């Protein structure tokens, strides 16, 4: 039977544990052991004091100092030794857990805890002053100025991942961190000793990711950053780092991105950057080379999406930890504001890459800010009241006041602030606002603010600041990137067209060089395009978050004007008027872009967007910029049901937007018609051409809405109510556009045929210089596009006239409109069936959207529709009055064409009858003209030089004109045609005296004519009788 092992005393256990932890001995070892150091001097000192030759907790620190300060051969460098001490202490701690004696175990735990604490403490001392202990020079990490702590941090946060492209993100070199070491190291209350260590770590992490793309090693440094800021000391040290927000005279957006601690982390991206700042690996070359298969593309898209979302989540968590810490929150907001303010020029069309941060940084920042917004983007938007509109006036962080506002001019805002400052002396917000203003045009109907001062801390709440910062970041980031993508696609198309043109030319050495250069350029364009698609367009959650943010934006903006209800208040609230214009423009741009993406609207409520657009698209008193209001129509056009391109469910959802909302049913058609009129004058030098594109979108919407019974009824009601108002203006511009577009396209067809004839004469064509042939060929293709576009727009306008005149005729037959309508129809008829019709024949008319038979049919239907509604029989006379295009033979010629194409016989018969009536009216008009004889000049209208029927005096120029003539002029131009002063129909002054004179003149002439006819009749009777008598 074996004897039981003798129980060791507390002192013996303590000695054994400490010797193991610190790897020291007080007695010279019998066998040499390079790991255990014999502390000869310490042993001699203990002996001299007559103490037992044991290690105790009281001797622990002096033992450690002796070990570190001594010059021992072949020992570990100080840092590795101290970390090893901690690891061995941890191992000893696990061993003693089996001790049955609780008191003894507690004593040993205390010893081990003290050993750990000392190890950590001296680690800090060593890292803070690497020269403090001998042997530091043999530490390779210290010698290279790299912190030996960083591999331990990497070990703690994970070894990183190996991506499918073969790149490993592990840099920890197999070093394992003892459990609990870093936690003990960074939780020390002595911030001053930790601060320089942490600052060094942040600088190293920044350096690692400085030139790294989304395919490189960014995940491990990012996890390390997140780990460090999770400690209060780490968070405080980061925001106190001199590079948190770099300072300097030449500070700009790019400098912040390159030199701040967080900047390089935000720079990590799949989007290409300027060659000077290029990151590796090159995403475009590695993932999207010329030979990439579709399956490879899908795989690359998925990988990049995963990597970038990992980046977004990590960066968002870093910022969130800093924001939750009361000591660091302000610093984070200051950093974000500085990044935004210093990159404000990213909103420009041309961005200077040397002074502005990269697109990648701002797309990343967009995604991160949207994640920070998630708590207040709930479906019910319950926290929207925490967003204070007065932040625009008094927020001192973001530079918002220099931005173009929805309606208010800078002078107006300054005036409001200054008025308010009289009652709030001492506030500096007003002064700051006054100093930042720039003169713009003013003059608006905006309600004065009751009190501009922010209410308490509401305007400074995090939700409020986060909202405005996110709006600015999205404008400079995500929305700018989407705009860049659109321009990139256009550039690609131009390059492809140029390449095709070059390949059609005769080969030459220079041509081969140009083709090779263009092909290389196109390849880079394709890579850049796919990088954008990979990081942005295929990331549906990113777009959904952005749409959710802008849903909050429109709901919040509508709240400023009293909620979703119409009509809008007569005066625009100053808070709404002063909001940056891009808040609304970005929302519209995102909706347009998202509408082209599959599933982008999944889970997004579009009702508020729809109602917002209906409320403001025809309200220049609220949104001054006509192009922004036109963009709202473009959004509606994108949301419109398109059964041929959508699933039945998507079509039904789209239809419910247009057909299931009260605001839509009451105001959509009305506001579209109003915008159609307003867009005639945008104030831009390109307004004449811009209006056609805008009206094209409106026309498509109106055509769809006409087919919806509820909207058609609303349309007819508007035509009745606004017969002499907005509806008459709408018809006037519709007719103006129709005439211009058809005339322009028909003339271009004639020019195009001449050019086509030139090119078909091969012998003559080849004799021309190459440059001339190239220019003429370019002109030929340009004309093709112009004809196609103009003809498409003309077809739309004529089609709208055709289907609306089926139900609405009264406005067309008004005195100021009927002659204009008749002249337009006569002109179209002359072009289509007149003498020059054969010269308009094309080889492939469908290519140019030229459908003469369909066009003729629609024009005839307009004639017939108006004749049916002409209860007073004034239309035939208006047709015959047109001296430029009217010809009675055109009606029979058109009828022949309609019979040949098999048109409805009843319609043809009605059209022929209308022609007959016009012929009679023409004869009667000639008789009437003969009756009147020479008309005094004072009775003639000075514009048309026709006899006035209802003379009126213009209040400014005092010139007398005929009412229908001036009213027709006022439909297009609210000014006196003789001196350009402002003029409206209600300002016209009836000239009753002149009217009476004209009527008397007519009666007099008719009376004279009657007497003359009577005498001629009598004479004819006598002559007839005499003849008869002679025959007899």
Automatic annotation (TrEMBL):
Catalytically driven reaction(s): S-ubiquitinyl-[E2 ubiquitin-conjugating enzyme]-L-cysteine + [acceptor protein]-L-lysine = [E2 ubiquitin-conjugating enzyme]-L-cysteine + N(6)-ubiquitinyl-[acceptor protein]-L-lysine
GO biological process: ERAD pathway; protein polyubiquitination; ubiquitin-dependent protein catabolic process
GO molecular function, one term: ubiquitin-ubiquitin ligase activity
SUPFAM superfamilies: RING/U-box
Keyword hit for Lyase: no
InterPro entries (alphabetical): Ub_conjug_fac_E4_core (IPR019474), UBE4 (IPR045132), Ubox_domain (IPR003613), Znf_RING/FYVE/PHD (IPR013083)
Keyword Acyltransferase: yes
Pfam families given in the database record: U-box, Ufd2P_core
EC number in record: 2.3.2.27
SMART domains given in the database record: Ubox (SM00504)
Keywords, comma-separated and alphabetical: Acyltransferase, Coiled coil, Cytoplasm, Ligase, Nucleus, Transferase, Ubl conjugation pathway
Region named Disordered: 419-455, 1005-1032
Coiled-coil stretches noted in the UniProt entry, renumbered to this chain: 485-535
Domain U-box: 934-1008
Cellular localisation: Cytoplasm; Nucleus
Biased composition, class Polar residues, residue ranges: 431-453
GO CC annotations, alphabetized: cytoplasm; nucleus; ubiquitin ligase complex
Record pathway: Protein modification; protein ubiquitination
Membership in a protein family: Belongs to the ubiquitin conjugation factor E4 family.
Protein name from the UniProt record: RING-type E3 ubiquitin transferase
Organism the protein comes from: Rosa chinensis (China rose)
